[in-house]
Each structure stands twice: as structure tokens, then as C-alpha cells.
Design a protein that fits this description.
The complex is a heterodimer of chains A (182) and B (141).
Chain A: H1 5-18, E1 23-31, E2 34-41, H2 48-54, H3 73-84, E3 87-93, E4 97-104, H4 117-125, E5 132-141, E6 144-151, H5 152-159, H6 165-180
Chain B: H1 8-21, E1 33-37, H2 40-44, H3 47-60, E2 67-71, E3 83-86, E4 93-95, H4 100-112, E5 121-123, H5 126-131
Parallel strand pairs in B: 1-2
Antiparallel strand pairs in B: 1-3, 3-4, 4-5
Helix pairs in contact in B: 3-4
Classes of the chains: A alpha+beta (182), B alpha+beta (141).
Chain lengths: 182, 141
């Protein structure tokens, strides 16, 4: 199992980008003892049979990993949700994309910590490929809502490119400052 | 880190400032490329921390125009986290069990010092070295 929720998110976003998504939307909403995370992509999607298999740890998409037949990305999520009394919903259509929504209590004793979300987000926007990623995070405390939004295209525009060390270290600093306010 | 929420405009300005102070230290102006394997097993083994240490260490040494990329697993799941280092005129090397400490060694010994970190080399067979046309060892220099 991934040891933080940030690692899990990064892994799931990797799946979306590898499924040729042009747009990946991530929404994270947190209030009192409930966190809802939604990852929506317009990648190649899965038919019902593939969806069933995607949840099976002893399955991986043919050709994705030469010489290996296990895939643990989604099973890790299912395992975490099952272990913490959370829930998840996988909706996918072949050729249309995949939406994954999960809801859980982050304070539940068996729930992994959130971890370094800024670092995970930096890694999510610097994957190879031409895709857009929109991230929106809201935290509600005592009737007050704090939020931030970032998108890969505006970050790329501000930094010029996302491949150099210089860009990636500034990117990390920028994302940490967004997280610091929450 | 306690800091004020940065705006995109501030990010843009910071980037402009840094651009002027960048020293290009990779030799002969050729690009060094480091790829971090970020598949499920890589992430579970700490590849994200490896990536972050790599970026921080390269930035510390002002090796700012190294290209840092991410890929899926590099096929060595037993030795995660794994990274591939490509330095011009050196054989491409895949390192395994690359914890943050090992990243610092790779940056200092391989990328700066041009010496391989032997005990962490996991792959890139000899064929690769033989193919490295202008590699000094192959050419007996």
C-alpha cells in the first residue's frame, strides 16, 4: 500500500496520463471529517470487463509492463478505502475517459497521512506528454473555505518549460506556498 | 514551510530573475538527462522523494539545465527507486535503490565527477557501452 495519500494520487494521475488523457481534472474537497477526491480524465477509458480487471491486483493492461502481470495502482486505492471505511466509485467508458471518486475520513486511524501534496502535484504536472491538468483544492473549516487552483498550462506558461531543474525547483516552491495556507 | 501564497505573476518574476543568474555548468553545453522511474512500485518505494532530492541537489550545484524526466517503471521493480542517468560521453546507466542519500552521491560522483557509482548500477548492458560511439574507454583514449 502507498504510505501517503499523495503517493496514491500521483500514481492514479500517472494512470490517466498513460491512458492518453488530454485533460486530467482533480478536485479535492475537505470538510470536518470527510475528504472527497475526484480524478476525471478523458483518456482511453475502460469497458466494464476492463474495469473489473483493473481492480484486480493480479492484472495489468497487456503491454503496459513487459514481463509483468500485476498492476497495483487501483487495487491500492480500493484497499485503502476498504480498510478505512471509505467508499469509491469508478466510472469509465471506452473511448470517453475515466472518473474516479473516493470519499473517506482522513482522521480515521488506518487512513494514511496526506503526505507531501505539493511535491506530488509538482510530479503530476511534470510528466511527459502534452496534457492539461487542472487541480482544485478546497478546505472548509468553521464555515470558512480556503482554496487554491492550479493548472499545468498556466504553470508552464509562467515558467517557460517544465523540464529543467530550474523550473522544477521553482514549481515546487510555488506549490508549497499554495499548500502552506491551508 | 511558512511562506506567503505565491501568485503566478510572482512565479514568473522569480523565473526571470533566476534565468539571469543561471550558470551553465554541464560540460560542452550538452544536455544531461536524468529519468526517474515513477511507476506504482517506484512511488511506493519512495521515487517521489528521490525526484525531489534530485531536483534540489542539482539546483544546489546550479546544474540547472539538466533535464529531469519521469517515466513509468524502468523494468527493475526489485531495485526501486530507479533512475537512469545520461551524461554526454558516458554510458547510460540505470541506478537502483536510489534513496535520497544515493541521489546526492550520483549527482556528486557521476554528474559532476564523471565517475560511476558502481554499487548501485543495476542495468544498461555492455551493448550500450559498445554503442556509445565516442565513449573514451571504448575508443581507448
Amino acid at each position: 500500500m502507498h504510505w501517503t495519500l499523495s503517493h496514491m494520487l500521483l500514481d492514479l494521475v500517472h494512470n490517466s496520463v498513460q491512458a492518453d488523457a488530454r485533460l486530467v481534472r482533480i478536485g479535492m474537497h475537505q470538510e470536518a471529517n470527510q475528504m472527497t477526491i475526484r480524478i476525471e480524465d478523458d483518456g482511453k477509458g475502460m469497458d466494464p470487463e476492463q474495469q473489473k480487471r483493473a481492480l484486480d491486483p493480479f492484472y495489468t493492461e497487456p503491454g503496459k509492463h513487459p514481463g509483468r502481470r500485476v498492476g497495483l495502482g487501483l487495487p491500492f486505492l480500493v484497499q485503502t478505502m476498504t480498510a478505512t471505511g471509505g467508499s469509491y466509485r469508478l466510472h469509465s467508458e471506452k473511448g470517453q475517459g475515466t472518473t474516479l471518486e473516493f470519499r473517506f475520513d482522513p482522521g480515521q486511524i488506518d487512513c494514511p497521512p496526506l503526505g507531501d501534496l505539493a511535491g506530488a502535484l509538482a510530479a503530476m504536472v511534470t510528466l511527459e506528454g502534452d496534457y492539461e491538468l487542472e487541480f482544485h483544492r478546497t478546505v472548509e473549516t468553521g464555515g470558512e473555505q480556503i482554496e487554491y487552483r492550479v493548472s499545468r498550462s498556466e504553470l508552464r506558461e509562467a515558467l517557460g518549460e517544465l523540464e529543467s531543474v530550474q523550473s522544477q525547483s521553482l514549481l515546487w516552491e510555488f506549490l508549497q506556498s499554495q499548500e502552506a495556507e491551508l | 514551510m511558512a511562506q506567503k501564497k505565491m501568485t503566478l505573476e510572482e512565479l514568473r518574476k522569480l523565473r526571470e530573475e533566476k534565468r539571469h543568474s543561471v550558470q551553465v555548468r554541464d560540460t560542452e553545453g550538452k544536455t544531461i538527462q536524468v529519468t526517474v522511474g515513477m511507476g506504482t512500485s517506484g512511488i511506493a518505494a519512495g521515487a517521489k522523494e528521490t525526484l525531489q532530492t534530485l531536483v534540489a541537489e542539482l539546483a544546489k550545484h546550479e546544474l540547472t539545465n539538466v533535464r529531469v524526466r519521469q517515466s513509468g517503471g524502468l523494468g527493475l521493480e526489485h531495485a526501486e527507486p530507479t533512475i537512469e542517468v545520461r551524461v554526454p560521453k558516458m554510458p547510460a546507466v540505470i541506478y537502483g535503490r536510489v534513496t535520497p542519500d544515493v541521489v546526492r552521491r550520483i549527482v556528486n560522483h557521476h554528474i559532476i565527477g564523471r565517475e560511476l557509482v558502481d554499487e548501485h548500477i543495476y542495468d544498461r548492458p555492455a551493448a550500450d557501452i559498445l554503442d556509445a560511439g565516442d565513449h573514451p574507454i571504448v575508443n581507448g583514449e
